[in-house]
């Protein structure tokens, strides 16, 4: 049984749920804002023999046609500090959080390392699936573990970062674990020290053009945002 706060939309157009505004229709769609709601939605789909398709902000998504499935729009929110020790901090970030806004939040709070990944479209939950990367930095080294729910059983589980099979724009969630798990949260370990990675040629040139001599995380963030805004729409 679904929570009274959840409403299943039947024969729902997906045009406003993907950044390319492609025409497609889902057999059903539901927005979930908690792990409990997600488990209820999975059980609802299983009882009707429907496949499940998780959907964040719909970036990097191309619908080949209508989906005879339950589309799960993940609207989960929240950023929690789990551990603070020495120069590092471990955060647990809900899968539905916007990636770029999370990078901004981290920078404001003095947690560094993700500046090169600014303005990448999508959600935090989608980021590990393709191991996002840009300007000499990949997400993989920052991930401690993923929190997931198994689609078949509805059980909560965790996957260590070392077990994610990360490669260049790749992970096990694009292959053997594809469609088997829904990522609900990501544990990310960041630094309190403002070391920067700024030797990627395009980034180094952008910093030089700005006359930046003192490299700081904020300077790198600003340069990356400027570069990407010439190529991508603002998320």
Counted beta strands: 11
Beta-strand residue percentage: 25-35%
Tell me the strand order in the biggest sheet. 5-6-11-9-10
The name CATH uses for the topology of the largest domain is: Uridine Diphospho-n-acetylenolpyruvylglucosamine Reductase, domain 3
Oligomer: single chain
How far is it from the N-terminal to the C-terminal residue, by CA?
35 Å
CATH class label of the largest domain:
Alpha Beta
The CATH architecture classification of the largest domain is 2-Layer Sandwich
Count of discrete alpha- or pi-helical segments spanning 4 or more residues: 4
Shape field: globular
Number of domains: 2
Q: Largest beta sheet, briefly?
A: 5 strands, antiparallel
Overall average pLDDT: 93
User: Helix coverage percent of residues?
Assistant: 10-25%
Structural class: alpha+beta
Please state the CA-atom Rg, rounded to the nearest Å. 19 Å
SSE order = EEHEEEEHEEEEEHH
Low-confidence stretches: none
Describe what this molecule looks like in 3D.
With 235 residues, the chain is of the alpha+beta class. The chain has 2 domains: 9-74, Uridine Diphospho-n-acetylenolpyruvylglucosamine Reductase, domain 2, CATH 3.30.43; 79-191, Uridine Diphospho-n-acetylenolpyruvylglucosamine Reductase, domain 3, CATH 3.30.465.10. 19% of the residues lie in helices and 29% in strands. It is built from 4 helices and 11 strands, in the order ββαββββαβββββαα. It has helices at 35-47, 99-108, 201-209, 217-229, and strands at residues 9-13, 25-32, 51-55, 67-74, 79-85, 88-94, 133-134, 137-138, 143-150, 156-160, 181-191. The strands form 3 sheets. The chain has a 5-stranded antiparallel beta sheet. Strands 1-2-4-3 form a 4-stranded mixed beta sheet, covered by helices on one side. Strand 9 (143-150) and strand 10 (156-160) form a beta hairpin. The two termini are 35 Å apart.
């Amino acid at each position: 049984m679904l929570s009274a706060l959840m409403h299943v939309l039947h024969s729902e157009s997906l045009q406003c749920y993907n950044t390319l505004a492609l025409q497609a229709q889902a057999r059903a769609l539901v927005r979930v804002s908690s792990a409990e709601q997600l488990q209820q939605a999975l059980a609802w789909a299983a009882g009707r023999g429907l496949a499940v398709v998780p959907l964040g902000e719909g970036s990097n998504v191309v619908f080949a046609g209508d989906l005879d499935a339950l589309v799960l729009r993940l609207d989960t929110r929240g950023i929690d500090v789990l551990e603070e020790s020495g120069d590092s901090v471990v955060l647990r970030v809900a899968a539905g959080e916007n990636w770029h806004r999370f990078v901004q939040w981290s920078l404001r709070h003095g947690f560094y390392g993700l500046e090169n990944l600014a303005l990448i479209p999508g959600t935090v939950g989608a980021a590990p699936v393709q191991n996002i990367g840009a300007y000499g930095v990949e997400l993989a080294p920052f991930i401690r573990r993923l929190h997931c729910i198994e689609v078949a059983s509805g059980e909560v589980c965790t996957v260590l970062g070392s077990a994610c099979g990360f490669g260049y724009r790749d992970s096990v969630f694009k292959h053997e674990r594809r469609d088997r798990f829904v990522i609900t949260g990501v544990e990310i370990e960041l630094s309190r020290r403002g070391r920067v990675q700024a030797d990627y040629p395009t980034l180094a040139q952008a910093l030089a053009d700005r006359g930046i001599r003192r490299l700081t995380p904020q300077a790198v963030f600003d340069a990356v945002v400027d570069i990407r805004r010439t190529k991508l729409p603002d998320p």
